[in-house]
Amino acid sequence: MTVLSVADRVSELQQRVQRMQGAAVTRTLDSLPALGEVLRLRTGGAYAVDSPSLAMALLAGPSLAGEWSAVVGVPELGWEAAAGFGLALERTIAVPAPGEHWLSVTAGLADVVSVVLVRPASPVSEAQAERLRSRLRQKDAALVCWGSWPRCDATLSVTGSSWSGLGQGHGHLRGRQVEVSVRRGGAPVRRTRLWLPGTDAQVSVAAEAPVQLLRAV
After folding, report:
1. Cβ atoms within 10 A of the Cβ of 215, count?
2. pTM of the prediction?
3. Which of 6, 14, 83, 186 is the most interior residue, by most CB within 10 Å?
4. CB proximity list for 93: less than 8 A, separation 6 or greater
């Protein structure tokens, strides 16, 4: 065992102890290389997205690094696509239909995973968001909401989308290029073009502008 691996192991054990003790901790989670230029999740934070593809890509980075994830209230999530992005299904807890109990389920899962993706079954109040944020800080977890979330740390939106691979009435969809807008409070909106995924099934920064923009989905 190398010195670096020993240090990493000690850090991991310290984080587990802090989580069990309920001590407030925060750290930056690993991300896919392309998303590192867009946004990196921090534990204790809440992030809103309008696209399941973005949500899966955000979870994939920590998952590839060995973190546990949870998905709450998304019964139609494409698990094959999620695995393609890099989500380790063996370290992912799914609660497809929590109904009115989505908030308590999400809070409970924050005790044992590093990232929770949730699609709330009802509008989220300021009080609910603040209670869950306090739990995220105490339990060293981050929240990704598919939908709106009060006072979130950042909002990610797909503002344009185009597909490659189709010819004149024939062919197969091979890659999707999107424009992602990131809004943080009153700061200027940042826009980045990504392959989500590319023709190689990977998430990467797009070097060229798409030929045709379609309605974001």
Report:
1. 7
2. 0.79
3. 83
4. 68, 69, 70, 71, 109, 112, 113
Residue 154 in contact with residue 184, Cβ under 8 Å? yes
Question: What single letter denotes the amino acid at residue 123?
Answer: P
Q: Are 158 and 171 in contact (CB under 8 A)?
A: no
Structure tokens at 149: 């979330």
- The sign one gets for the Cα dihedral 1, 18, 115, 193 is negative
Tokens of 23: 């001590």
**Cα Rg of the chain (Å, integer):** 18
Helix (H, G, I), strand (E, B) or coil at 11: helix
3-class DSSP assignment, residue 13: helix
Token pair 């943080």 in the structure block, residue? 184
Sign of CA dihedral 15, 18, 20, 24: negative
Mean pLDDT of 41-45: 95
Residue-wise pLDDT for 7-18, tens only, equals 666 666 666 565
DSSP 140-191: T-EEEEES--TT-SEEEEEEEEEEEEE-SS-EEEEEEEEEEEEE-TTSPPEE
CA distances (Å), 181 to each of 40, 64, 101, 125, in order?
14, 24, 31, 24
Cα–Cα distance for residue pair 29/190, rounded to 1 Å: 20
